[in-house]
Amino acid sequence: MSSSVSSFDDYPVHQAPEYVRHPATSDRNFYDRYYFNLHPSSDEYFAVMGLGQYPNLGVTDAFCAVAQARTQRIVRASRPLEDRSDVSVGPIRVEVIEPLRKLRVVIEPNESGVAMDVTWTGAIEAFEEPRQYLRSRGTVIFDTQRFAQLGRWEGTLAIDGAETAVTPDRCGGSRDRSWGVRPVGEKQPDGIRLTTPTMAGMWNYMPADFGDHSIVYMCHEKPDGTRALEEAVRVWSDPHRPPDWLGRPEWRHETIAGTRLLAGSAIAFPDGPDGPFEMAATPLLANFVSIGTGYGIDEDWRHGMWQGEQLVVQALTFSVDEIRRLAQYGLVDSVARFAYDDPARGPQEGYGLYEHGFFGPFPQLGLTERGDLFD
Hints:
Elements: E1 30-38, E2 46-54, E3 59-68, E4 71-80, E5 88-89, E6 92-98, E7 102-107, E8 114-122, E9 127-128, E10 132-136, E11 139-159, E12 162-166, E13 172-181, E14 201-209, E15 213-221, E16 227-236, E17 244-245, E18 250-255, E19 262-269, E20 277-287, E21 312-319, H1 320-327, E22 332-342, E23 346-359
Antiparallel strand pairs: 1-2, 1-13, 2-3, 3-4, 4-21, 5-6, 6-7, 7-8, 8-11, 9-11, 10-11, 11-12, 11-13, 14-15, 14-23, 15-16, 16-17, 18-19, 19-20, 20-22, 22-23
């Protein structure tokens, strides 16, 4: 590139004595990403979308994966990163209409058969999640910051030419913005970390929308039982009402024998303002995002991986039965129904994201070796 100057440099957004094109850190793994999911509060379909920029790798890429019945369709795109204000990759683009409140996601028609034009409106204020910091045998693996938000969708979704109305009375979802350092791009040699997974143990992330409030639960529990990250909070749609911090969350998972998948969960919150309560989670439809979208299992397509000087757009269609066996070793996103009895307000029901992953051993659920499956 002939110049480091880009359009964002005309805005007062600088955080370091560098042009916006260049992050303050030279770590190759610096990234800046959008994540969205969309569901009709049922098992009809579940869409997961993402778009990321990787300035130190010179790449921007994006994907959309739509699960429906026993089929998963994916469109993915990658190109060299130029101006960071251009939040588009091929047919996929994100538009910030009103920061922290309203965003638009567009996927132009493409060979995957998936197209959409949907606008997301926040149902709660953007919520700061805990910073994630992991150092493995001397190297910083994760140093990331995120905010999360639940909201409602409106627009249209087309799958193989069949157009579906996306209406906010039915269609919800969560989003997050994250940035910092985590493994991206071409796989680096494991070296001293050969026998240690990047994020060893159990990962749970479950943001659920109950109408006038949302509950955000997350937990990264290591094989030795310590927790690198946890959160349990109830966030009210009324921005003037402060969040309820719910204490240390405790999980009970129902496993599916012969897999690394879960059939359901109960999450206990000991410190609700009106007393302890337990939230039940029932997954309705899985989206195996670890295959085809860049989350690390594919050798030829990882977030931030260089795909060449020209725009690359690819369409993939999988049978869920084909990919489930391998995908269960990575991140699994599902739309789920959540329910709990509020000590003060009675039964509550909502829908949201049921995300889990078991990486390497996790003795708490009987996984003693990297390749073990649940009994």
